[in-house]
Design goal:
Radius of gyration: 20 Å
Strand content: under 5%
Distance between the termini: 67 Å
Shape: globular
Structural class: mainly alpha
Largest sheet: none
């Protein structure tokens, strides 16, 4: 267990120092101005965000910004790159994100009686976007969305074709 924690810490430290990531510049600046190691800055930011999501004003906005800003930024990079793999990864994220957004609309009453809802949702959003083999969006897509889609897409396509034909006949 201790070896796994050290492995996670090393991986996180490597990611926090990766020059290709958008947060590296900000962490470089904060580390040089404060003299505090970026790992501690990151842990403090996670702690403050966690407390904010539990007790803070506009927790929903903070949670939704976390689930949107970074994924939108890297999605634009993926669109502009020539690599198809990153496009697929982020398209998968947005499919799962949309699914949760629709589900959340219908489960709105949960928010009122589940005090840690925004923290839990934020944790799920981070799990959906983490760049590891345990990426939540890839796991949920492959285990839930893809099998359901493969089972039902022909019927949906037929229904859409019929609707298109009916619409074309009216013109």
């Amino acid at each position: 267990m201790a070896a796994k924690i050290v492995e996670i810490k090393d991986s996180l430290n490597k990611s926090l120092r990766d020059g290709s990531k958008p947060w590296t510049f900000l962490l470089d600046m904060m580390e040089s101005k404060t003299g505090v190691d970026r790992m501690y800055i990151f842990v403090a930011a996670v702690g403050i965000t966690t407390i904010w999501l539990i007790f803070g004003f506009a927790a929903q906005l903070v949670c939704n910004c976390i689930g949107f800003i970074y994924p939108a930024y890297v999605s634009i990079h993926a669109i502009e790159s020539h690599n198809k793999d990153d496009d697929t990864k982020w398209l998968t994220y947005w499919v799962i994100f949309a699914f949760f957004s629709i589900l959340e609309f219908f489960a709105d009453t949960i928010v009122g009686w589940f005090p840690l809802y925004w923290l839990a949702k934020c944790s799920v959003m981070v799990w959906l976007m983490i760049p590891t083999e345990f990426n939540g969006s890839i796991i949920l897509y492959n285990r839930i969305v893809r099998p359901y889609f493969l089972k039902h897409h022909a019927a949906v396509d037929q229904l859409l074709d019929k609707a298109k034909q009916a619409f074309d006949k009216k013109d």
